[in-house]
Amino acid sequence: MNQKTMIQPCFACFQNSLDKIQSNNHIHNDILELSSKEIHSIESNFKEIESNVNINSSNNIDSSIRPILAWRDPHNPPSNIDEVTHLGLMEKYKIPFIFDIHTHFFPLSVMRAIWKWFDGVGWGITYKGKEEYRLDALTRNKIKYFTSLNYAHKPNMARGLNQWVHETHKDTKNMIHFGTFYPEPGVEAYVKQAVEEFGFQGFKLHCEVSKLDLNTPELRSTFQYLEKDQIPILIHTGTAPLPGEFTGYKYFRPFMEAFPNLKVIVAHMGAYEMEEYASLLDIYPQLALDTTMVFVDYLATGSKPDKYIDNLEKYADRIYFGSDFPNIPYNLSHPISNILNFPISTEAKHKILYKNACDLFRIAYY
Ligand SMILES: [Zn+2]
Ligand SMILES: [Zn+2]
């Protein structure tokens, strides 16, 4: 029996279900052996991360946990073939490229564990494959700039993930390096190192997976540092698809009161409490949202996403396009085409799909 805990992927945060899964605490050798061959060559320094991975066979997953999420029209789901059908629409609206602020990069061993988990809950991932393939897919889809989001679900993991991004992706063209952190001794020091030594331009936190209370005093000085230096933090703070111990508006609001000038990007527009999170945009000028998995036919962020299309126009200066690539059960054309087809101004489309993020990271777009 293995005592390791399971990686919970972004959005596959179904704690009750995971409790059931974790009672089947196996490691499956096929995946670990496969990945360890490559880990020896490219990821040998990250044993700590690897040691956190527990692979569970889909055969062991209680079928009562699925389907957890639904398609808007189960008889007509969007394509999961990488067809790049949005390129014509981009041309029509003269969108030169896409900036995707919400893309995940983990060491391959961790990524494989995440994919195995998704397989087990019937969430088919369109973009499984080695990094080379995934980077090609982004290029094919005209996603010129993208981020390196990951997160830790336990202590002694975040620093290793940051090092992995720094060392593995030093030369990855147009990747905006994001790190992560966790309430633990030394957190402020390794966050400073990531910014000042590695040149990271942002951080990602995941309140559900990390069981993270943003209001913990252990992170106060770290948030003060990031607030002072105006370093963006992208946070999955919302209750979708199921709430965690510290998710939702009731935890987020006092956090913003404590750090009113922090540059926070709320993932998934704060789903399921999109109204409440949007109302904070009127109070905090530095606050922003990302569109990740909101305007899509996989209803992970609520059953009526179209209700919020108006907010794309109203808050067009503070909304960033995000996809959750590669862990999406449809192709990249689906969310991009939807935004391009919405009845919002062309200027709003330009802002959301690349201009806002380029401005945030001081990247020229002409
Ligand atoms: Zn998320
Ligand atoms: Zn995500």
What does this entry look like structurally?
With 366 residues, this protein is an alpha/beta fold. The chain has one domain: TIM Barrel. It has helices spanning 15-22, 29-42, 47-50, 87-92, 108-120, 131-140, 158-168, 187-196, 220-228, 249-258, 274-281, 309-314, 333-341, 346-360, and strands at 98-100, 143-147, 175-176, 178-180, 202-206, 233-236, 264-266, 288-290, 319-320. The protein is globular and about 50 Å long. Bound molecules: zinc ion (2 copies). One zinc ion (ZN) is lined by residues 10-11, 236, 267-268.
The rounded Rg comes to 19 Å
Mean pLDDT: 85
CATH architecture: Alpha-Beta Barrel
Count of helix runs: 14
Strand order of the largest sheet: 4-5-6-7-8-9
Distance between the termini: 57 Å
**Model regions low in confidence, pLDDT < 50 over at least 5 residues:** 1-67
Kindly report the CATH topology.
TIM Barrel
- The coarse overall form would be globular
